Amino acid sequence: MTRPLTRLVAGVATATLAITAAGCSSGSGGGGSANVKSLSVGFVAEPANLDFTSTDGVAIPQALLVNIYEGLVKLDQDGKVVPLLAKSWDISADRKTYTFHLQDNATFTNGKKFTADDVVFSINRVKTDWKVSLKSAMDVVSNVEKKDDTTAVVTLSKPSNSWLYKMATRVGAMFSRDGVADLPNTPVGTGPYKLESWKRGDAITYTANTSYWGTKPKVEKVVLKYYKDATAMNNALLTGGIDVISTVQAPESLQQFSNNSKYEVIEGTTTGEVVLSFNNSKAPLNDKRVRQAIRQAIDHKALLDTAWAGRGQLIGGMVPPSDPWYEDLTGVAPHDTAKAKALLAEAGQSNLKLRLRIPNLPYAVATAQVVKSQLAEVGVTVDIEPLEFPARWLDVVFKQADYDMSIINHVEPRDLGALFGNPKYYLRYDNPKVQGLLAKADAGTEQEQVASMKEAARVVSEDAAADFLFLFPNLIVATKGVTGLPKNLVSESFDVTVLSKAKA
């Protein structure tokens, strides 16, 4: 017994950060040739390398996923799982066997044909060769096999509500069996673009893949330009150096664009939670009273108004409103300096000093200053230490957990379990109740999934496992005539394949 595709994707609701732009094609069909020579997009976080199988962080899949690497499935603009390299798929009655029916005309940029052998290779490689924490998404896979060149069968060890969804993230990227020799520098995928050049510290340049199996991109060359600060990126747009600011890094600067007919400002939401991370494994933040005190010392509305010009949303937990298990948890830790002081006194923490090691990104720097000021009001001294991002922050904070607090925008789709279900993750949060709820959610019915995920999110918030500062807004600015830009950010990738601009 199998389930039809329409039931398969029903109930897979909106996801997390990066971009799958409006009007995105599933890739079936030939399409016309590129009709615009070039388009440039500005970013602030440059990848440390081009290998997201061995390096954590979103900068790499933001640049490569969907554009160069494709998966069997992807997320559409509504956050639903839709076909890509798999034309369709069936699920067995016990929800453990997935049969994928593959595109029969896809090739990699090294000229090799994409077949079920590559599906077997790619999924198995996550389990054997990947180094990043997200590889655990494949732990539930017990077997993957080729039925024929255009049919791959994946068998799970148990039913999993999240597995197919995770296949739309970087974990589901398909690799050529002959294309993994130099992943940090030479990506080989089936996507609409291929890498032309990478000038480190400056730009990554893509050119259209002329042998692409699906709808051809509308722009022949796309340049991803990287800037050290928001002002430089804004100036690049004003002077014609770039066509798009992917994410505005200084919201107060929007006025210069919104009052100018040459530009279009897009404002929406994302699923990226800006988190004040706590190191739950070491004193003093292994004491719930200290964590609660910090949460209640922070006036979140004032922080959002001051640090990010009031743009964004207060949510109080690790679930964005676009997920079906969202609940407004802003009332869990209301601003109360008297309560915060009392909790610190109860915990025996007078003259508390904490290291706040943050990425040197505009949102983190601006937010850290407000956190420092507000915690000073309850007698907590905060030492802010910006670290170069991604390499230095990933090494010191993410890998070594050498920090007290940090601030990071967690953009990976549906990442509650990644942050708070894995005791080895950099927050070092170990709560068997939360782990049990996450497991129950993954294995249960759709209704059980929603109920258990909602409960897990509430437990995490009530336990003050972190402080959830605000939901990051989607703020994009582009020159007039650029089309295909999304209102909301719903996946890990910045999808440039659907962008275009009017010819000059």
Q: Which structural class fits the helix and strand makeup? A: alpha+beta
- The percent range for strand residues is 15-25%
**How many beta-strand elements?**
18
CATH topology of the largest domain: Dipeptide-binding Protein, domain 1
Flag low-confidence runs: 1-33
What's the arrangement of secondary structure elements?
Layout: H1 5-9, E1 36-43, H2 59-64, E2 73-75, E3 81-83, E4 86-91, E5 97-102, H3 116-128, E6 141-148, E7 151-156, H4 163-166, E8 193-199, E9 203-208, E10 219-226, H5 230-238, E11 244-245, H6 255-258, E12 263-278, H7 288-297, H8 300-308, H9 337-346, E13 353-359, H10 362-376, E14 381-387, H11 391-399, E15 405-410, H12 416-420, H13 432-443, H14 446-462, E16 466-479, E17 482-483, E18 500-501
Parallel strand pairs: 1-10, 1-11, 13-14
Antiparallel strand pairs: 2-3, 4-5, 5-7, 6-7, 8-9, 9-10, 11-16, 12-15, 12-16, 17-18
Protein model, in words:
The model is unreliable at 1-33 (pLDDT under 50). Helix 7 packs antiparallel against helix 9 (337-346) and helix 13 (432-443) packs antiparallel against helix 14 (446-462). It is globular and about 65 Å long. The longest helix is centred in the C-terminal third of the chain and has 17 residues, at 446-462. It folds into 2 domains: 6-201 and 480-501, Dipeptide-binding Protein, domain 1 (Alpha-Beta Complex), CATH 3.90.76.10; 271-473, Roll (Dipeptide-binding Protein, domain 3). It has helices spanning 5-9, 59-64, 116-128, 163-166, 230-238, 255-258, 288-297, 300-308, 337-346, 362-376, 391-399, 416-420, 432-443, 446-462, and strands at residues 36-43, 73-75, 81-83, 86-91, 97-102, 141-148, 151-156, 193-199, 203-208, 219-226, 244-245, 263-278, 353-359, 381-387, 405-410, 466-479, 482-483, 500-501. The chain contains 14 helices and 18 strands. With 504 residues, the chain is an alpha+beta fold.
